[in-house]
Amino acid sequence: MKYTSLKTIAMLGLFIVLAVITASAQTGSRIEASIPFDFAAGETNLKAGNYTVKRISKDALQLRNAQTKTSVIVMAPLVIQQTRNDAPERLVFKLYGNEYFLSQVWTNRAANGRGLFA
Q1: Using an 8 Å Cβ cutoff, are 63 and 72 in contact?
Q2: Minimal CB count within 10 Å: which of 3, 54, 64, 66?
């Protein structure tokens, strides 16, 4: 009897923790940015323009071009940490030669961001 009650309480606690994590992952998960250059995100090449970047799952981001209304989903499997919790939302690009690659996405003022393979 004690074992069944303990197991039920543990499962209920786990469910509550997962619900809180899911709810917090959905807040502050969108960035609007004007990108003045063509760039690659994952395997996709995108044109310069105004974009909305939204985190749609733990590892997936949706990039939507405001002018053309087209969107692409890219994987951002890398977890990146920073020491400051007050850094602004931002997109980080790397420049190789004359090509830009989206490498990091920080969708809220938290210590964790997402990284893409460039």
Answers
A1: yes
A2: 3
